[in-house]
């Protein structure tokens, strides 16, 4: 019997294959049936390069566990966590190993009493500590966090490796608590975004103390002059300032040498009484206090403003937001000073910032904005103030498109009442590029 892989008495072949000897497959020869060749190609194996290693023994990845924990079984690891045996950054490495074995944060909490929040804090803080070791931070600084340092290191997790080392030194030198470490980290992340603000160039970005000092300096200028809050903030800024230039700027403000400039700025604010701020990415999430306001669309004209809820408050221990009636569109904003105590506030969303009636709006181009207005202050009584009105082609201030108008212009047209006094203009978040981390700064 003969098995032939030919088609129509034509040997199987391929045009792109090299020519080699044909192979004949015969299971039982038959004198009556002529043998037909089956063409195939032998593809010789390519000889390996002379510099290539043919055999590489298996090497398991290094264990993240300290050597004293590697031979322990699951029950022993749980016991170490439950009794906090050893240093926190050592037993913190047991948590990821248990999760790899199938445990979940709730099950680990049930077995050890360590909450999911604390588990996350321990793991992240251990990673931050390891980054300090890898960046050759002084051993005495690293060892200072060996006892109760997880909460402190956790707060500087968002900083780059270089910033972490500098922040860690400052935390130890100033003996900061968790809240102080959190303020320090935020000030270091926020400083580059404040370019252009008063005295910004007087503080050194590479010095954590100067970054924290600038944050207190900014907070001081948000309070009235004179006031106890302003003085306390400036004293805190002076206490943590490191560079002589920063100390001089804070001291000048504390001694009142900048009062003339403040009066000049106050005159400017008399002409433009509306702060224009750009919301930063993640700023709402990091805010310790927020406000929730109803949002109306400018294209809906005055209809939505009249229908929007007038009262919105928080109730209970969880701060549940309660409105007098249902509404579809809401916005959450940090509790900035202009919106503190705003009981009858409303937000109007404009698709084009050029509706604002001052010259600087040309820089906004076609950027969308939110205009926050106080409906409790409808009367047009300040020439330099700004008001939310609806203006038609005749300029009677009663219908058609919503706009922001200056008080003096409204008075000239005989408009004495608006939908509300504008207290704040919010610009959308924008990706910052001046303080992005370099590739080598990431873990």
Can you characterise this structure?
With 443 residues, the protein is an alpha+beta fold. The protein has helices at 74-83, 88-91, 94-100, 105-112, 116-134, 139-143, 150-155, 161-174, 178-190, 208-220, 228-240, 244-254, 259-271, 283-286, 302-307, 407-412, and strands spanning 276-278, 290-297, 312-315, 320-323, 330-334, 345-350, 369-374, 386-391, 401-406, 420-427. Strands 1, 2, 5, 6, 7, 8, 9 and 10 form an eight-stranded mixed beta sheet that branches. The protein has a two-stranded antiparallel sheet with strand order 3-4. Strand 3 (312-315) and strand 4 form a beta hairpin. Helix 10 (208-220) runs antiparallel to helix 11 (228-240). The longest helix is centred in the N-terminal third of the chain and has 19 residues, at 116-134. It is globular. 26% of the residues are buried. Residues 274-430 form the Rubisco accumulation factor 1 C-terminal domain.
How many discrete domains? 4
Helix content: 25-40%
CATH domain class of the largest domain: Mainly Beta
Q: Distance N terminus to C terminus?
A: 69 Å
Please work out how many helical segments DSSP would assign.
16
| Unreliable stretches | 1-28, 38-43, 55-63, 260-272, 394-398, 433-443
Structural class: alpha+beta
Average pLDDT over all residues: 78
Order of helices and strands: HHHHHHHHHHHHHEHEHEEEEEEEHE
Reported CATH architecture of the largest domain: Ribbon
The largest sheet is:
8 strands, mixed
What proportion strand?
A: 5-15%
What is the overall shape? globular
Rg of Cα set: 35 Å
CATH topology of the largest domain: Umud Fragment, subunit A
* DSSP strand tally: 10
């Amino acid at each position: 019997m003969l098995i032939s892989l030919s088609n129509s008495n034509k040997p199987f072949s391929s045009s792109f294959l090299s020519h080699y000897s044909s192979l004949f497959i015969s299971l039982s020869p038959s004198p009556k049936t002529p043998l037909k060749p089956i063409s195939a190609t032998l593809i010789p194996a390519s000889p390996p390069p002379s510099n290539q290693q043919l055999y590489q023994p298996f090497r398991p990845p290094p264990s993240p566990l300290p050597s004293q924990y590697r031979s322990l079984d699951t029950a022993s690891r749980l016991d170490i966590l439950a009794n906090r045996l050893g240093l926190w950054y050592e037993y913190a490495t047991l948590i990821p190993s248990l999760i790899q074995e199938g445990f979940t944060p709730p099950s680990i909490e049930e077995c050890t009493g360590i909450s999911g929040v604390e588990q996350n804090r321990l793991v992240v803080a251990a990673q931050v500590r390891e980054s300090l070791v890898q960046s050759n931070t002084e051993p005495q600084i690293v060892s200072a966090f060996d006892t109760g340092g997880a909460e402190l290191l956790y707060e500087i997790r968002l900083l780059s490796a270089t910033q972490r080392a500098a922040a860690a030194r400052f935390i130890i030198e100033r003996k900061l608590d968790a809240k102080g470490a959190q303020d320090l980290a935020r000030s270091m992340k926020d400083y580059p975004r404040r370019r252009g603000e008063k005295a910004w160039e007087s503080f050194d970005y590479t010095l954590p103390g100067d970054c924290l000092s600038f944050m207190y300096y900014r907070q001081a200028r948000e309070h009235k002059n004179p006031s106890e809050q302003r003085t306390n903030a400036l004293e805190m800024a002076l206490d943590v300032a490191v560079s002589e230039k920063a100390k001089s700027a804070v001291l000048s403000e504390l001694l009142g040498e900048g009062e003339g400039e403040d009066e000049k700025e106050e005159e400017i604010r008399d002409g433009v009484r509306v702060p224009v701020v750009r919301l930063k990415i993640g700023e709402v999430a990091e805010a310790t206090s927020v406000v929730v306001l109803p949002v109306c669309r400018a294209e809906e004209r005055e209809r939505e403003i009249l229908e929007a809820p007038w009262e919105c408050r928080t109730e209970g221990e969880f701060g549940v937001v309660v409105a007098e009636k249902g509404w579809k569109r809401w916005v959450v904003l940090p509790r900035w000073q202009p919106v503190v105590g705003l009981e009858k506030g409303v937000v109007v969303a404009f698709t084009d910032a050029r509706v604002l009636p001052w010259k600087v709006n040309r820089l906004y181009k076609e950027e969308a904005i939110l205009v926050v207005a106080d409906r409790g202050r409808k009367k047009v009584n300040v020439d330099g103030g700004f008001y939310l009105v609806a203006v038609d082609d005749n300029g009677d201030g009663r219908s058609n498109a919503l706009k922001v108008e200056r008080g003096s212009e409204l008075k000239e047209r005989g408009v004495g009442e608006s939908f509300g006094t504008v207290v704040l203009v919010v610009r959308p978040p924008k990706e910052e590029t001046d303080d992005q981390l370099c590739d080598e700064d990431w873990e």
